[in-house]
Amino acid sequence: MIINGVMIxxxxxxxxxxxxxxxxxTAQNLKWAYHSxxxxxxxxxxxxxxxxxxDIERELAPDETPDGRPGVAVLLFAMSSKGLARxxxxxxSQCVLTAPTSALFAGITGSDIPLGKNLRFFGDGFQISKLxxxxxxxxxxxxxxxxLVEEATGITTAIGGGNFFILAxxxxxxxxxxxxxVGAINKIPNVITPFPGGxxxxxxxxxxKYKRLKASTNExxxxxxxxxxxTKLSPxxxxxxxxIIDGLSKEDxxxxxxxxxxxxxxLGAKNGISRISAGNYEGKLGSFHFHLQEIMK
Amino acid sequence: MIINGVMIxxxxxxxxxxxxxxxxxTAQNLKWAYHSxxxxxxxxxxxxxxxxxxDIERELAPDETPDGRPGVAVLLFAMSSKGLARxxxxxxSQCVLTAPTSALFAGITGSDIPLGKNLRFFGDGFQISKLxxxxxxxxxxxxxxxxLVEEATGITTAIGGGNFFILAxxxxxxxxxxxxxVGAINKIPNVITPFPGGxxxxxxxxxxKYKRLKASTNExxxxxxxxxxxTKLSPxxxxxxxxIIDGLSKEDxxxxxxxxxxxxxxLGAKNGISRISAGNYEGKLGSFHFHLQEIMK
Amino acid sequence: MIINGVMIxxxxxxxxxxxxxxxxxTAQNLKWAYHSxxxxxxxxxxxxxxxxxxDIERELAPDETPDGRPGVAVLLFAMSSKGLARxxxxxxSQCVLTAPTSALFAGITGSDIPLGKNLRFFGDGFQISKLxxxxxxxxxxxxxxxxLVEEATGITTAIGGGNFFILAxxxxxxxxxxxxxVGAINKIPNVITPFPGGxxxxxxxxxxKYKRLKASTNExxxxxxxxxxxTKLSPxxxxxxxxIIDGLSKEDxxxxxxxxxxxxxxLGAKNGISRISAGNYEGKLGSFHFHLQEIMK
Amino acid sequence: MIINGVMIxxxxxxxxxxxxxxxxxTAQNLKWAYHSxxxxxxxxxxxxxxxxxxDIERELAPDETPDGRPGVAVLLFAMSSKGLARxxxxxxSQCVLTAPTSALFAGITGSDIPLGKNLRFFGDGFQISKLxxxxxxxxxxxxxxxxLVEEATGITTAIGGGNFFILAxxxxxxxxxxxxxVGAINKIPNVITPFPGGxxxxxxxxxxKYKRLKASTNExxxxxxxxxxxTKLSPxxxxxxxxIIDGLSKEDxxxxxxxxxxxxxxLGAKNGISRISAGNYEGKLGSFHFHLQEIMK
Lengths: 297, 297, 297, 297
What we know:
With 297 residues, the first copy, chain A, is an alpha+beta fold. Chain A has 7 helices and 18 strands. Chain A has 2 domains: 2-14 and 159-296, Alpha-Beta Plaits, CATH 3.30.70; 19-156, Alpha-Beta Plaits.
């Protein structure tokens, strides 16, 4: 399959079940909602080292938020409900409770993931509970005024590790295609691209020659190793970057992959974009398979 | 002491010894250096819940970086050398190794904090070492090309918890003064303001009525509790925000406090800025005391 | 009428008929679409000195643009069709033709305002015409590749000078309310706020004691002149800022005024927002009257 | 001459004498200083259609500005003193006088270019003059409070049209090299790059086959015309972009060209950067010649 001169590999992205939640952070203005959300979703590129994968999902207008203020929605993903809850609580306490003018609300129906449920004790007995339309909110006195926080947010099954590779003839071209792809994916709801700027440049394989290391560089896709290993790169490929997508459903990830791959292909062969591929473990590990050529049909 | 109508309290900020390091992240352009640095220093507001306190220190021009590319310097602080090393390594592996086009260098003389020392094993035997002017660098093959990373960076004694409070007649005024103060502090080298946007709105006291909780809201500074507790706020104060400063030396923190307090006072009483105060434990816990009136002399 | 402690004056904004057009600028990525659009809509705050009033209306996803690339929509307003056409042509030639990777398309049905119609001659005979679905496009060879530009865009009747005043107890509070208001208005389609950051701080009256000057400071609303002139400000008002809205229809301006005033009132009296008023010439000059209390009902 | 695989042409940039001035815009915070400065320097890419060439020069810390607030320095260039004065006055009146919380100061010694000298009449007789250290300032009452503006700023001889071309194998690569170059030039004082994002993609030659047109596309550098005209491009070049630099002196432009060309060459041949060239009229028109190979020695 070829789109605008770009080869779409007959392969698939292999993805895994995760648990996810959404929270809504509002503030006096968008800038301060972003400050809080960026802190909360920082250092959250990969579940392995960060405890969760997280990012800002989208901006919210005042008429889309519970308190009529501007805000942002954040999505957080982890392997288990318990692990997710722990990450949400500690990140909310360090990055939202502390952030000037912010409030924190549920972004998914349900009450599995505590928001204010335990944070309220920071109020040292001065916190006040309000029940509005069946939802419990806490008003916690702080130096700046009050921190308004909903009791809990919901949890949902989700998918982590949707992905595709962009193979290009130079680093600048791979990066430009990634910028285009991430820009397009950012417009799709229910998904995030948790790596820095949405892009990962260090794809890994399972295992390593060093025993303690569970993952190491994916040498078959490393351009500088083309002469030394059994490579999957043709001679003209000099840079490969990966976009990893976590989403709430298969459909969401498919839409994001379609938007991202389309944007990369839009730059086309004339901009040195040679191939789109994807990362998988030959179907042995992940239960979700996203076939590139099906998605791009 | 009164500056532009703003009362400067006869009190002091109580701060603690920490360990700190600086690293330099370069990339193809500043935008991607920021992407990596923001991920690496995200979720790093307070040592208690985040493992370290970290932020971007400043932007670097191409002629200020080891590889002649644009970059940023980041500062990270922790209580112990070991704790700091662990945070730097895991954050570098998740947020710099993975970030497209980035390289990572020492920002302080010395080699106490591993950068590439262990990250190199990700290269699975294909990594290459270079010794230039006595510094060891690693070239680790990745899908995008190569990750260039220095062996290690230095460590230094440092100070955490420099701080001051801005007491204002409304939330919008306190926030405007904080924006001015953080803007001024951002121009000072060797310091960071680790909280979201540089500001903390939930100052805490040691202890709580709930046994398990080691810290809780500082009710004496909570405007909504003026009628219920022994308050430190006069009737017109309706919002208090805190700026917390970590720095490499006493002098650095003094300069930052001077710049920040000056900027807040510049807005003055006519903009509802009433008082500047600071957080301390009556001198019982922290070994560094920053007296506001001395600093502002 | 009082909203959250803020008095809504029983007055109206007086606005004028204008002509408007919309153009769409796409580029390799959003950043470069913004660079072009910001140049094109710069120095366009007021029709009096700038020749037109213009601003970015909103961001466009790849699936919303004619060439499937990311882009932004810009709106430009002038008093006459001829004046508008002249401004669009010169601004397109200086700021879009010149901007790397940009393309320029109609954003309103019609062909009254030339886009590529005359710009094409820059191609010096090498330009090529394409007719797609009844629309003519020009491909103009440039050093970077080709500038793709639609023949023309449409024109529509429009309204300039929708406005409201925010009266506050300090400058920082007025500014915070303006930021909130402009943030909310930015989410409304078909309108722009052409002044710097969306705000004007120098409201004017018709005429002056200096004969050559057609407009001068609106002293009845100047806080520093409360003691010297017949003021419209009560003693506690220390700062007044104005938000000026140009829109494609009465309904659009009403929606924008509602969103903006709501956001300002959301901060409320406790943040020093005292009154909302509006600018008019007692109905003598402008044919559109926007009554604040009707809009906020 | 070859740098990192990039050919440096044995040619020169031909530049012209201009007049320039610097002004300083301060505000309550950097964001609002930028809002004003971006409006003032918008639609100012080329002297031909915009009346002046202008851009933000650099950010200023509070201790670098006359009123101790954060600010930015802007540079404006025109062909004559009179033309420059007219542009500065109209742009200051539309974009700084109107911008909330802004103040406007001289950035160069001298008093040739009016700032407040005529703007003061907007005060309608209520303006107040202050003489501080031999400089006259005006306090003009406005709705927001007062507009503080210095009487005048200086003028200096300057140079417009310093330039270089980046020739690359694809559009994405040319753009990446331009981003790197503009990023590096932004760190150099006394210069601006007035085109959108600092880059021009539509280099022109003098004259056209259409009599009324004084300039048209530089077809010898148009990649799509390689087969039709006497081209200056070798077969692999598919995109050419130009960076135009205005500066206060020859030395400033040389430093900027060196920094920009170095940054582009840093990406190198492996990123498709093939050649650096420059625009000239064979020495017939401009009095300043910047030889690329001399600058890069």
